[in-house]
Amino acid sequence: MDKIYEQTMLFDFYGELLTEHQRSVYEDALYHDLSLGEIAEERGISRQGVHDLLKRCDKILQEYESKLHLVERFAKAKRALEEIERLALAAEEDENKSKADTMAAEAAGMKNRLEAIRKISRELLKEL
Known about the structure:
The chain is mainly α. It has helices at residues 3-14, 20-30, 36-43, 47-68, 70-95, 103-127.
């Protein structure tokens, strides 16, 4: 994951566990794209203080993820759902193919895709 995306995901999942001050400063940096100087001036603290606070928040959020793995599980579920969508689309496309294709080949392909969808679904259900 690129750093901004990772920070955003971690904040989305664990941001409420930060203090109000930490959450507010982190939002300013991450979502409002304010510089350290702008945040420092707005809050009446030093740029170094803002930098240290952001680093501390990053570390806290990473620690939550290392213990709870919510972002990791979310990403895994998202990939599985994307695969289900891909398999369903392939099945739909097969259905729309010309009637010259043999029924046996279509049925075998459909069976394989359905088995893959069921496998992915079972894995998702275990995660939830």
